[in-house]
Amino acid sequence: MTATARSQRWEPVEVLRVLLSEEVAGRERTLTDRERQVLRLAGDGLSNAAIAAHLHLSEGTVRNYLSEAIHKLGTTNRSAAARLAHDRGWL
User: Fold this and answer.
1) What is the rounded distance in angstroms from the CA atom of residue 55 to the CA atom of residue 27?
2) Which of 41, 42, 53, 63 is the most exposed place for a label (fewest CB within 10 A)?
3) What is the CA radius of gyration of the chain?
4) Which of the four CATH numbers 1.10.10.10, 3.40.47.10, 3.30.559.30, 3.40.50.2000 does domain 33-91 have?
C-alpha cells in the first residue's frame, strides 16, 4: 500500500468494487485454449455429449471446462459465458 492509499479513506463499497473488478479482469485473461474451444462449441448450441464426442473428451470433462469458464467469466450459465467471450473477441 502506498502512502497515498494509506492516507485516503476508502468506503467499503468502493474497496469491494475495485477488488471485484480486478479479480474478474484477472480471471478473464486466464481462459485456456480448451475452455475457449468448449465455450465456442457450447455457443454454437452443441450439447455436452456432442462437445465431448467432437473433442474426444468425456462429458464430465466438458462439464468441468464449462464450469471453470463460467466461473472465470463471472457469468451464471454456458450461454452467457459463450456470449461474453464471443463479444470480447476471445472465441
Assistant:
1) 24
2) 53
3) 17
4) 1.10.10.10
Sequence-distant (≥ 6) Cβ neighbours of residue 61 within 8 angstroms: 52
How does pLDDT run along the chain (91 residues), one tens digit per residue?
A: 444 555 667 667 776 666 666 555 555 457 999 999 999 999 999 999 999 999 999 999 999 999 999 999 999 999 999 999 999 888 8
What the block records as the C-alpha cell of 11 is 468506503
Domain edges within the chain: 33-91
Residue 57 contacts residue 88 (beta carbons within 8 Å): no
Q: Counting beta carbons within 10 angstroms of the beta carbon of residue 81, is it exposed (0 to 12), middle (13 to 18) or buried (19 or more)?
A: buried
Rounded Cα gap, residues 1 and 31, in angstroms: 29
